[in-house]
Design a protein that fits this description.
The protein has 46 residues and is an all-alpha fold. It is built from 3 helices and no strands.
Length: 46
């Protein structure tokens, strides 16, 4: 079970939280990740 929890929290990108890991979300890292992702998408559209 501990291997699953490690994978789920640190590697699995969860669709319910915009494809970041639960650990990234909990640490507050998701804001920077999502901002970078958004800029990349905007550049691709241009």
């Amino acid at each position: 079970m501990s291997e699953f929890a490690q994978w789920y929290n640190h590697q699995h990108r969860h669709s319910g939280i915009q494809y970041v890991t639960p650990a990234q979300r909990h640490a507050g890292l998701d804001k920077a990740i999502l901002a970078t992702r958004s800029r990349t998408y905007e550049k691709a559209k241009e």
